[in-house]
Amino acid sequence: MQKYPVRVSHRANLRPEALEEIARSAFGSAARDGSTVSARFGALESLTVSADGKELRLEVVMNPKVADEIARETIARYNRFLQEATGYSAKERAKRARKSPGE
């Protein structure tokens, strides 16, 4: 399980309806079950996302045996999803992760 902080300007994206719409735009389809949203695409065997206070909680299962092209497209869509949901780019998320090693 991973947690990502969400910019104040993007906190409305923590609503299940908003997360479902963002996942649908990034991965082509998504399903909502209460406050949890799930999606699948390419190398993503399953992605489950929900709000955890002011953070985004993700559980991801990847298939490492996919073709390189599918893996690249999956990573690009995954990063696009996270950026739209959290308001932070991949570079900003990595920088924030390095600043908080104890969490």
Could you walk me through the main structural features you see in this protein, from its secondary elements to its overall organization?
- This protein is α+β, with helices and mostly antiparallel strands and 103 residues long.
- The protein has one domain (2-98): TATA-Binding Protein (2-Layer Sandwich).
- It contains 3 helices and 5 strands.
- It has helices at 16-27, 68-86, 90-99; strands at residues 2-5, 31-33, 36-41, 44-52, 55-62.
- Strand 4 (44-52) and strand 5 (55-62) form a beta hairpin.
- The model has no long low-confidence stretch (mean pLDDT 93).
State the main characteristics.
alpha+beta, 103 residues, globular, 3 helices, TATA-Binding Protein
Q: Helix count? A: 3
Overall helicity: 25-40%
What's the count of strands?
5
CATH architecture: 2-Layer Sandwich
Low-confidence stretches: none
Shape: globular
Largest β-sheet summary: 5 strands, antiparallel
Distance between the termini: 13 Å
Taken as a percent bin, the fraction of beta residues is 25-35%
CATH topology: TATA-Binding Protein
| Derived structural class | alpha+beta
Number of domains: 1
The rounded Rg comes to: 13 Å
CATH structural class: Alpha Beta
Q: What is the residue-mean pLDDT, rounded to a whole number?
A: 93
Strands side by side in the biggest sheet:
1-5-4-3-2
Could you spell the SSE succession in H and E letters? EHEEEEHH
